[in-house]
Each structure stands twice: as C-alpha cells, then as structure tokens.
Amino acid sequence: MEIKPEDYGLSGNGSKLRINLENGNKINKCNWKTSGVVVLRKWIAGGVCQCSVRLDGKTVLVTGANTGIGKETCRDLAGRGARVVMACRDLIRAERAAEEIRQSTGNGNVVIRHLDLASVYSVSQFAKDFLDSEDRLDILVNNAGVMMCPRWITEDGFETQMAVNHLGHFLLTNLLLPMLKSSAPSRVINVSSIAHQGGRIDFDDLFFSNRPYSALESYRQSKLANVLFTRELARRLKDGNAHQSER
Ligand SMILES: NC(=O)c1ccc[n+]([C@@H]2O[C@H](COP(=O)([O-])OP(=O)(O)OC[C@H]3O[C@@H](n4cnc5c(N)ncnc54)[C@H](OP(=O)(O)O)[C@@H]3O)[C@@H](O)[C@H]2O)c1
C-alpha cells in the first residue's frame, strides 16, 4: 500500500509541512516531530469513508455497534437513510447509542438487538430472530471485537478473541447468507486489522491449549482468520451478487 501525504491532509516538502484540517483551516510551519505524530495517528486510524450514496430502503446490520468504529459506522449509515440494526451484547448501552444516533441523524429507523458473539447459542438465536422478523439484509458489518484480553474461555470452550472476532462472525454470516443472497446485490464487511499481517494460525491449537497464551498472538491470529474468511467467502460467492470486503 502506498501512503501519500495528500491522503492524510498533508502538503508541503522539506522540513516544513502544511496540515489541511477537515474544517478547512491550515497549520503551517509544523516541524517533523509534530507532523510525524499526526501522520502516525492518521495512518493508524486509516482512511475516512467519504461515500454519500443514499441507502434508503436498505437494511444494514452492524455488530459491536454501541461504541467505537461500530457506532460511528451506524451513524454514517443511518445518516444516509438506511434501516440500521445495532447488534450488541449490552442492550442498555446499545439503546443509549441508538437514541444518540436517531437524534443526530434524524433517522428513527435505528433499532437494537441482543447479540453475544462469544456464545454459539446467542448467535444462533439472534440469526433465527433476525430471519423471522426482518425482510432483507443488504449490508452486514462484522465489526465487534475484543482486543488483547487475558486467556478467557467462552461457554463453548473457545478462547475468547478467536471466538468473538472470528468464530461468532463466521457463524453469524453463514446463518444470514440466505437473506444476504435474496437481498442481492448485498455486501459483507469484515473488520480486520493491520495486526493480521503478523498473524499465524495454528490449526492444531486454535485456542492456545498446548502453547503459552499470548494476547497479541491470539489477536493477530483472529484478525488473520477474518481476512482468510473474507477471501474464501468471496471466492465461494463470486458467481452471486453478495460481495465481501475486508477493512
Ligand atoms: N481501534 C483501532 O485502532 C482498531 C484498529 C484496527 C482494527 N480494529 C478493529 O475494529 C473493530 C472495532 O474496534 P473498536 O476500536 O471500535 O473497538 P471498541 O470500541 O472496543 O468496540 C468493540 C465493540 O465490540 C463489542 N463486543 C465485544 N465483545 C462482544 C461480544 N462478545 N458480543 C458482541 N459484541 C461484542 C463491544 O461491546 P461492549 O461495549 O459491550 O464491550 C463494542 O461494542 C474490532 O474488530 C477491532 O479489531 C480496531
């Protein structure tokens, strides 16, 4: 990937940089130390979606939607007219976030549903209820994630980062595939991380049962699983109209 200063609101050369702020103002005569921090922050944060395509009549489902990237994704999609289903494990926090999004976008078609990706039962129940009560699914954003937690084991006996970041989303996507296909052209977005680049999947010991647990190795493994899942799903669906993206 080539990183261009212009992509990050930077211009100028030599030891002086000009930073173009999103509000239209500019900061001149910035030294390398300051600009280096700005570039690093912007690079870690990644690109900003500038899409303004209207989504009226579309239904989107976002996991881990009560905070962080998931919440801001919901805000953007709601602002563009979509029906937004926020799938969260804490319904009180979810409703607080949903109400804030309804208020800030003027879109009342923002609803919450309970989903705990660490539980196969919860994912199955969620998918059943969703398929029973929703008419369509145009965009599925598999966003929820746990990062660098201790070695916690889920009720199904899985290591938590692998369970939540990959296995829960893998099951959810597969259970919702019939509706994604019937709503085609549809899209699945799996939120991975640059951390996948250092990842290695140990297929004989996915849950760190026989090797010392490393929170970072586990996170990287789960994020690499996101990427591999995305690619394989895209390969299997390439003749249909359901598209996959990894972010
Ligand atoms: N932030 C970054 O710099 C960064 C960089 C690269 C990739 N990412 C990826 O981006 C995604 C979102 O990250 P973020 O920074 O927005 O994280 P965040 O603010 O911590 O949000 C994570 C979301 O996932 C939810 N979640 C956690 N466990 C869950 C479970 N068992 N079932 C359902 N939902 C669950 C959380 O719910 P609670 O609020 O209830 O805990 C929360 O809503 C993650 O997949 C992460 O790996 C983030």
TrEMBL record:
Similarity annotation: Belongs to the short-chain dehydrogenases/reductases (SDR) family.
Entry-linked InterPro entries: NAD(P)-bd_dom_sf, SDR_fam
Protein name, entry field: Uncharacterized protein
Pfam families xref list: adh_short
Entry keyword set: Oxidoreductase
Gene3D superfamilies given in the database record: NAD(P)-binding Rossmann-like Domain
Organism this protein belongs to: Ataeniobius toweri
Top-level taxonomy: Eukaryota, Metazoa, Chordata, Craniata, Vertebrata
